[in-house]
Specification:
The complex is a heterodimer.
Chain A: H1 2-6, H2 21-27, H3 31-60, H4 70-105, H5 113-131, H6 133-136, H7 191-219, H8 232-264, H9 277-311, H10 318-331, H11 347-375, H12 384-407, H13 409-415, H14 419-449, H15 455-481, H16 498-528, H17 566-571, E1 572-574, E2 580-582, H18 586-598, H19 612-628, H20 633-655, H21 662-671
Antiparallel strand pairs in A: 1-2
Helix pairs in contact in A: 3-4, 3-5, 3-16, 4-7, 4-9, 4-14, 5-7, 5-19, 7-8, 7-19, 8-9, 8-10, 9-10, 9-12, 9-14, 10-11, 11-12, 12-14, 12-15, 14-15, 15-16, 19-20
Chain B: H1 2-28, H2 42-75, H3 92-121, E1 128-135, E2 138-143, E3 148-151, E4 153-157, E5 162-168, E6 173-176, E7 183-186, E8 192-196, E9 202-208, E10 220-226, H4 228-239, H5 252-260, H6 311-320, H7 322-325, H8 338-349
Parallel strand pairs in B: 1-5, 4-10
Antiparallel strand pairs in B: 1-2, 2-3, 5-8, 6-7, 6-9, 9-10
Helix pairs in contact in B: 2-3, 5-8, 6-8
The chains are: A mainly alpha, B alpha+beta.
Chain lengths: 693, 352
């Protein structure tokens, strides 16, 4: 308290107070608004990554296709993978985790709200930085043998038949950036620097938020919300955060090594100088395999929320599902070399990593069987969220099974680097994570808007996406086993791979069409959807005890949790047979909760907005642009400018007052319509549920 | 009634779709030279034998899980008059069962897997050694005993094991002949091994499977298995030097273009007359050895000639603008005139 009193309260460091308009979004520290920004950004990147995929599919729809140049093709598959993983699925999970984690555990915000804003802005600028490669990046064919005998090799990027060659000036070493192809000698332009440094920035965002989520879960749970009473999505968020915390430093180191190789002539991955090109793969996959679970575990959490709600039964084997998630995460760190079975690692290593990979099937199976157990004997309502959750279980199972065939190491020698693998991981990441995320969006849409999404359009979206998805990725298994290698710009007509490629391309366009329907549904339902009320799904978990849309403070009265599925038990009893019976005053209870939560008895303290996360994050890409162009004077200048901005932001962050002076804030509050009530400043610092960072 | 009819229609559509897809897969499988399903030697055979049992186990699990989903959705769907669900929280017995049963199945798969890994990794000491060197974007084959170098098509004796000793000159490549074995990386600065064996003479298609830069998709491979006697004859043939073209003969003009246009800086040709030969150091070996160019039925990373094209037609296109056909190719567009190209083709065709 005394420390607070001593802080300067000059005008410069007054905290921002706008609640509307652009500045309110830039300075917000509200986890829900941050979640919304994450969500829209992720979806935008999903559309971009999807367009990239459609261009790739047009190229492959015929043998010896001449739609794209080789350079454009390579750039597009590189950016498609990078975008979908780092700029879509991860931030989309982040969006839901941000929006929901505090609600799920009965908190008013995350532990470090400003840090949360920082994560988002770092991600945002990282994404822009990475994509600015399309404008600023350059890419050139290898210079290794340039100028032999006075003859210049073909140094123009791309070349050959096809159009869109302007896209070739962007990262083209694959999302996996294998060395030495993505190194300074064989990818000499700046494009792969944008890739390496862009991922570095984006990784930092996830690292920061992982710490934030972990502290939130450990410290800010509502009264009675023991760890093993947490909704499974909160659990999976926790486990995902651990994965991020331990795996991101590895890729950070690896990317720095690449950057040093490329910018400063270090020779970590230069085979000619005794460097080790396989080392990159170990580092990359030591991050990259946990990354797979970073993508899928949040979706598993979402599905574990949806299935019980729509089966009107508790999650079958709750603790088994939670521990299986932890086991998957733990084992996920011990299987990275199964991405490298063809790399020539010793047979002992191959066998060991093969066996370790097989063991992952066990906890994964436990989850799938428990989800089936949840549905079994339930009273299943096939609302859109449920369709997506069931779709997740069905499609993810296929991805899991094809995964087991890779664990059979010699089989993997045939399958690796073919479309069979492409099929496999799309069944896991698209059939898994993306179906789960869409289910979550339909399920929690009311929390965002107070309205429901249109069911009819939702179902059309689901069935079209399921059809398009299977038509796209199902035949890829077959294509791979028929010898179609990955990352291939062209295939020969003699290979007879064309018929299935046509089917795949048609499927891809069906997916695109289904996404269009989703977008129409989203934007029309936001304004005109059916009003949801507090409890549209007859839900089980306490995030539904916060009104829809959630007010800024989440809960006027933080719930006191007495059991797993606390909300459900407030509404339902069990009869002698163990069947659920709605309490006689069930509706009254719900109405009371709604009323209580909308009308705080006393003003609620919430963390104040801040300018500084935005400016700190703004400094990073400037510094990183400077690194790419450090040989020029202006590049060095950019590093300094970025550094000054970031340091100034850190200092501002450290000394800005906890709260602004009372007077004008209260006035502004009065000007805002009363419902939903916005945060009101307490007269004195009282019982603060969520502390300022 | 209406609802159940709807459900029947939906089920019908589903089954119909599966049947259509199944039928399509039959049409597709006519002639696919890169397929993994037609092993032509013991190593690919062993992998194939390992794949199918695992595949059928996967199919069984697939049917179990998807069947359970369908049954659950149809049996337990909320209908008018459905009772509320019993609030079951789980069953320790079931948890134990579905932990142990998959573990046992996996253990069953693990045993042959591990055995096969060791069996397939170590070359037989009596195997014929052939070095495979990856280049952007073609495979070089060096026969150390015979001291010959060839490219794009690897000739091996049928019925005998070949140990491919592999490395890369530039980036990572991945050598894959689906009918003969799985794939293995070619790693710059390291050596990897791959066992190959074809039981019958024939031509087997392959592909570089690791992304290796701009023209990765155009880095293909062939293996030609021949009878052992034929193999010995082939080796002897390849060891001979090319006839030195003499002024006035057919190939002489092409030979001159070869020297004057700088082709000679990347391509080795061994002539009978040593002074005409240019044996390029392996370290700066940027193009295939052309001494027996005409003995190979494919060139340019095994992408040419295309189906229905004669070698001369393909050569004509290729020499006119290599980077157009293979983007990023180190073989530059030398702006050769048509006459020069024709002369080169005559000379190249003579080098059997």
């Amino acid at each position: 308290m005394t420390a607070t009193a001593e802080r300067p309260t000059t005008t410069i460091f007054r905290r921002p107070s706008s609640t509307k308009g652009l500045w309110s979004w830039i300075t917000t520290v509200d986890h829900k608004r941050i979640g919304i920004m994450y969500g829209y950004a992720a979806f935008t990147f999903f559309i971009i990554g999807g367009m990239e995929a459609l261009l790739l599919r047009i190229q492959l729809s015929q043998a010896n296709g001449e739609f794209l140049t080789a350079g454009a093709y390579n750039a597009l598959f590189t950016m498609h993978g990078t975008t979908m993983i780092f700029l879509f699925v991860m931030p989309a999970s982040s969006a839901l985790m941000n929006y929901l984690l505090p609600l799920l555990i009965g908190a008013r915000d995350v532990a470090f709200p400003r840090l949360n804003a920082l994560s988002w802005w770092i991600f945002f600028f990282g994404g822009i930085f990475l994509y600015s490669t399309f404008i600023f990046g350059t890419s050139a064919a290898p210079v290794g043998v340039d100028g032999i005998g006075g003859i210049d090799g073909n140094l123009a990027p791309g070349g050959g038949p096809g159009s869109f060659n302007f896209l070739a000036d962007s990262p083209d070493g694959g999302w996996f950036g294998y060395q030495p192809n993505a190194g300074p000698l064989y990818s000499p332009g700046t494009a792969m620097d944008y890739w390496a440094l862009g991922l570095q920035i984006i990784g930092l965002a996830s690292l920061v938020s992982s710490v934030n989520f972990l502290v939130t879960v450990l410290n800010l749970r509502a009264k009675g919300m023991r760890l093993l009473r947490m909704p499974v999505f909160a659990w999976m968020t926790t486990i995902t955060s651990f994965l991020l915390l331990f795996s991101l430093p590895i890729i950070a180191v690896a990317l720095f090594m690449v950057t040093f190789d490329r910018q400063f002539g270090s020779l970590f991955f230069a085979a000619q100088a005794g460097g080790d090109v396989i080392l990159w793969q170990h580092l990359f996959w030591l991050f990259g395999h946990p990354e797979v679970y970073i993508l899928i575990l949040p979706a598993m959490g979402i599905v574990s929320e949806i299935l019980p709600t729509f089966s009107r039964k508790p999650l079958f084997g709750y603790s088994a599902v939670v521990f299986a998630g932890a086991a998957i995460a733990f084992l996920g760190f011990g299987v990275w070399a199964h991405h490298m079975f063809a790399s020539g690692i010793t047979p002992v290593a191959q066998a060991a990593f093969g066996l370790a990979t097989m063991t992952i099937a066990i906890p994964t199976g436990i989850k799938i069987f428990n989800w089936l157990g949840t549905m079994w004997m339930g009273r299943i309502r096939l609302s859109t969220p449920m369709l997506f959750a069931i779709g997740f279980v069905a499609m993810f199972t296929i991805g899991g099974l094809s995964g087991v065939t890779h664990a059979v190491v010699p089989s993997d020698w045939q399958q690796t680097d073919t479309y069979y693998i492409v099929a496999h991981f799309h069944y896991v990441i698209f059939g898994g994570a993306v179906f789960g995320l869409f289910g979550g969006l339909y399920y929690w849409f009311p929390k965002l808007t107070g309205r429901l999404m249109n069911e009819r359009l939702g179902k059309v979206h689901f069935w079209l996406m399921l059809l398009g998805f299977n038509l796209t990725f199902g035949p890829m298994h077959w294509l791979g086993l028929q010898g179609m290698v990955r990352r291939t710009w062209k295939y020969a007509p003699e290979t007879n791979l064309e018929p299935w490629n046509v089917a795949v391309t048609i499927g891809a366009f069906i997916i695109a069409f289904s996404i269009l329907i989703f977008m129409i549904n989203w934007f029309t339902s936001r304004r005109r959807g059916e009003v949801s009320g507090l409890d549209p799904w007859d839900a089980r978990t306490i995030e539904w005890m916060s009104p829809n849309p959630s007010p800024e403070y989440n809960f006027a009265v933080p719930p006191v949790v007495t059991s797993l599925d606390h909300f459900w038990h407030l509404k339902y009893d069990e009869d002698a047979e163990g069947r659920a019976v709605r309490k006689e005053d069930g509706d009254e209870i719900v109405a009371t909760i709604d009323h209580e939560q909308l009308n705080p008895a006393s003003p609620i303290h919430l963390p104040n907005p801040s300018y500084f996360p935005f400016f700190f994050a703004l400094g990073l890409p400037l510094m990183f642009y400077g690194v790419i162009y450090h040989k020029q004077l202006w590049g060095k200048g950019l590093i300094i400018v970025g550094l000054i901005i970031a340091l100034a932001a850190v200092i501002g962050w450290a000394i800005e007052p906890l709260e602004e002076p009372h007077g004008d804030h209260d006035e502004e509050q009065d000007a805002i319509p009363p419902s939903p009530p916005a945060a009101v400043l307490p007269p004195s610092e009282g019982e603060t549920e969520s502390s300022d960072d | 009634m209406v609802r159940s009819r709807h459900r029947l229609i939906r089920l019908g559509v589903l089954i119909g779709a599966v049947l259509v897809l199944g039928a399509c897969s039959l049409i597709g499988s006519e002639d696919q030279p890169l397929t993994t399903f037609e092993p032509a030697g013991p190593f690919a055979e062993q992998i194939d034998n390992l794949f199918w049992p695992v595949f059928w186990i996967a199919v069984a699990v697939f049917i179990l899980v998807q069947g359970a989903i369908l049954v659950a959705v149809f049996m337990f769907r909320d209908r008018d008059g459905s009772k509320e669900a019993k609030q079951l929280h789980g069953s320790p017995k079931l948890e134990i069962a579905w932990t142990i049963v998959p573990a046992l199945i996996l253990a069953g798969i693990a045993v042959p897997t591990t055995a096969a890994v060791f069996e397939l990794t170590e070359c037989d000491p009596d195997a014929i050694e052939i070095q495979v060197i990856g280049h952007q974007w073609w495979f070089e084959y060096h026969y150390p005993e015979a001291e010959i170098d060839t490219a794009n098509i690897m000739v091996i004796p049928a019925g005998q094991e070949v140990c491919a000793v592999m490395t890369s000159d530039d980036v990572l490549h991945n050598f894959w002949i689906p009918a003969l074995n799985g794939k293995r990386y070619l790693v710059p600065g390291q050596t990897t091994l791959l066992r190959l064996q074809a039981d019958e003479p024939g031509e087997y298609w392959g592909h570089c499977a690791e992304f290796c830069g701009l023209s990765h998709s155009l880095m293909r491979a062939r293996v030609q298995a021949v009878e052992p006697a034929e193999y010995e004859a082939w080796l002897a043939e390849q060891q001979t030097a090319a006839a030195t073209p003499v002024e006035g003969t057919d190939g002489y003009e092409g030979f001159e273009v070869f020297g004057a246009k700088g082709c000679i800086q990347c391509h080795t040709v061994r002539f009978e007359d040593d002074s005409a030969s240019n044996i390029i150091e392996r370290a700066s070996f940027n193009g295939p050895d052309l001494t027996h160019f005409a003995s190979r039925n494919v060139f340019a990373g095994a992408i040419l000639p295309e189906e229905g094209q004669s070698r001369d037609e393909a050569l004509k296109d290729w020499l006119a603008d290599p980077p157009y056909i293979k983007p990023g190719s180190f073989m530059p567009d030398l702006a050769l005139t048509e006459a020069e190209i024709d002369a080169l083709i005559v000379w190249l065709d003579s080098m059997e």
